[in-house]
Description:
The chain has 112 residues and is an all-beta fold. 0% of the residues lie in helices and 53% in strands. A 4-stranded antiparallel β-sheet has the order 6-7-8-9, with no helix packed on it. A hairpin with a 6-residue loop joins strand 8 and strand 9 (79-88). The model has no long low-confidence stretch (mean pLDDT 88).
Amino acid sequence: MITGADDGSVSLWSVNKKKPLSTVKQAHGCHGDAGLEQPHWVASVAALQNSDTVASGASGCSHNSQVQLWKCGPNYRGLEPLFSVPVSGFVNSLKFSSSGQFLVAGVGQEHR
């Protein structure tokens, strides 16, 4: 399982543990003036079934957002960034197609 949070972290979980197997803090970076930076909060996540690929969507300031794709590390004990795609708007939802060939992002002018 994968979760995202308003503190900017992305966590990878197992049904057998009460704590995350791995957490990436400030997974989508920060914004704001020096000394007052705030992480971009993670508004959506998706996992590609039966694979080691997950995605997270962050909503940035001024509607500058991104979708980040991740690869789970060995034994699911880490997340390695693969690449990110800039998006104009707030990434409100993410969903992989059942074939795994597509990732659909629900993007809006407001966060939901």
